[in-house]
Specification:
By secondary structure, this protein is α+β, with helices and mostly antiparallel strands. It has one domain: GMP Synthetase, Chain A, domain 3. Helix content is about 35%, strand content about 30%. It is built from three helices and five strands. The strands form two sheets. The protein has a three-stranded mixed sheet. The chain has a two-stranded antiparallel ribbon with strand order 1-2. Helix 1 packs across helix 2. The longest helix is centred in the last third of the chain and has 20 residues. The radius of gyration is 24 Å and the shape is elongated.
Length: about 130
């Protein structure tokens, strides 16, 4: 690269190689982490229940750690504890892998249960 200084061209050399850890930092906004956590919760819940809202998340990011609160709606009957554990595990693994932060807490809140009878009626089935 050349630079003009006082009418004469001088050649600048590239700076010495700087170690990756000393180059600077990257800050990922909380709302971006929340969107990623929401998408991970959608992946874990599986196909959406008819009439259910999409999962969403609220997060707190501090010093490269994430605490997330995920809100989901599930079908019923189901093993609620197992489904919540699956959501918690998936969100922890995927958010940690995608944003490179440690996920210290994932609280799963079940907002609503959708009964199978209502789901079957919406699909035109009766018993």
């Amino acid at each position: 690269m050349t630079a003009v200084s006082g009418g004469a061209a001088e050649v600048r050399r590239p700076p010495a190689e700087i170690a990756p850890g000393e180059r600077g930092s990257l800050r990922i906004a909380d709302r971006v982490v929340a969107k990623i956590a929401s998408q991970c919760a959608r992946e874990a819940v599986g196909p959406p229940v008819p009439g259910a809202e999409r999962p969403y998340a609220n997060v707190v990011v501090a010093h490269d750690t994430v605490r997330a609160r995920v809100h989901v709606e599930l079908d019923h009957p189901t093993d609620i504890g197992a489904r919540c554990a699956a959501v918690r595990r998936h969100v922890t693994e995927r958010v940690g892998a995608l944003v490179g932060m440690e996920v210290t807490e994932v609280a799963v809140h079940v907002e609503r249960l959708h009964p199978a009878a209502a789901r079957d009626a919406a699909q035109g089935r009766t018993r």
